[in-house]
Specification:
By secondary structure, the protein is an all-alpha fold. It has two helices and no strands. Helix 1 crosses helix 2.
C-alpha cells in the first residue's frame, strides 16, 4: 500500500510535469507501478563475480601520454 504522503507528492509532480490532475485511484495505480519498476532497477544482480579474464585489456599503445 502506498502512503498518502507519497500519493500527494506523486500527484503534484505529475501535475507539474504533464499538467494532468490524477485521481487517488490513478495515482495509486501509477505510483505502485513506478515503485515496482524502481525495485527492479535498483535490485543488485545476485552472485556477481568479476574475473580478471573478463576485465578489458588496455595496451600501452592505446594509452595517451
Amino acid at each position: 500500500m502506498v502512503s498518502t504522503e507519497f500519493l500527494d507528492k506523486f500527484k503534484k509532480l505529475y501535475k507539474d510535469k504533464y499538467n494532468i490532475i490524477l485521481s487517488d485511484e490513478e495515482a495509486t495505480r501509477l505510483g505502485t507501478h513506478f515503485l515496482n519498476l524502481m525495485k527492479i532497477l535498483i535490485k543488485p544482480k545476485p552472485n556477481t563475480n568479476i574475473n580478471q579474464e573478463d576485465e578489458p585489456v588496455c595496451l600501452e599503445s592505446e594509452v595517451e601520454r
